[in-house]
Inverse folding.
């Protein structure tokens, strides 16, 4: 696999959307290519950052209770 | 009407997805009160239409679909005008940082506050924002995101791609404004 193809598949690799064969091809390329590995780690890091930044918002307790009453 | 016991079990399972729905509603409306209204309405609707939910399928996705459809009906009118993103060309933050000599590139990410990331997400047009919420924040598969949004998987992928580029551009602009990154500043000055 060339770096270009690896780069094209990186999003889907990070999102775990490639089939097993494709994922293995990307993984093998990453293991032998420090540049693409750095890129992969960056994208994975950014995805985690987006998740954890937005994750902190949870439903307020009072709202949860109110909803529980309404639904029961 | 469902049996009371079945109804309770349904409501209980539905409540386990409250944080996901609330977060989604908050990011879509940008307003805690509107988010609560929207989520409450979604739950009432879900209860009313629980016969249309197939047990064993993805309840989180089903509930999210109800909530976001209500959002579009209520706040945006039923017509989903697709606010287009500025055409950035290909913007890849990693490459941009690498070109500017910021290494390791991920150090820049560690310096960006969570609130800045949230505001970058909030700046995305809603049709792009909701894909990021589903796939990146809630961990939906492309298929589940496509089913939730009622679009083909290809649309999920293209919106996600555009959304990520826009998000990376916003984070880059913030990093430059706040001095985390100095464009060109890290390059070696050639010795004469
Ligand atoms: Zn490579």
């Amino acid at each position: 696999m060339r770096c270009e193809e690896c780069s094209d598949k990186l999003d889907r690799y990070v999102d775990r959307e490639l089939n097993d064969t494709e994922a293995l091809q990307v993984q093998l390329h990453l293991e032998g290519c420090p540049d693409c590995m750095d890129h992969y780690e960056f994208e994975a890091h950014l995805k985690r950052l987006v998740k954890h930044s937005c994750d902190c918002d949870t439903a307020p307790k009072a709202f949860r209770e109110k909803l529980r009453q309404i639904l029961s | 009407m469902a049996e009371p016991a079945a109804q309770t079990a349904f409501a209980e399972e539905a409540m386990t997805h409250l944080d996901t729905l609330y977060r989604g509603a908050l990011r879509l409306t940008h307003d805690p009160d509107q988010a609560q209204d929207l989520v409450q309405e979604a739950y009432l609707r879900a209860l009313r239409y629980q016969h249309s939910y197939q047990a064993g399928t993805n309840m989180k996705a089903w509930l999210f679909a109800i909530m976001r459809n209500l959002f579009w009906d209520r706040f945006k009118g039923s017509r989903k005008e697709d606010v287009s993103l500025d055409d950035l060309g290909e913007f890849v933050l990693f490459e941009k940082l690498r070109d500017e000599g910021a290494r390791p590139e991920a150090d820049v990410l560690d310096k960006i506050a969570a609130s800045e990331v949230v505001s970058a997400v909030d700046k995305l047009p809603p049709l792009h924002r909701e894909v990021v919420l589903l796939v990146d924040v809630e961990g939906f598969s492309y298929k589940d995101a496509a089913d939730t949004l009622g679009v083909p998987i290809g649309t999920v992928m293209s919106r996600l791609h555009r959304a990520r580029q826009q998000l990376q551009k916003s984070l880059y602009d913030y990093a430059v404004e706040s001095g985390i990154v100095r464009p060109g500043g890290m390059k070696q000055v050639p010795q004469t």
Q: What stands out?
A: The interface with chain B takes residues 11-12, 15, 17, 38-39, 41-43, 45-47, 49-60, 63-64, 66-68, 70-72 of chain A (CB under 8 Å). Chain A has a mean pLDDT of 95. The longest helix of chain A spans residues 34-55.
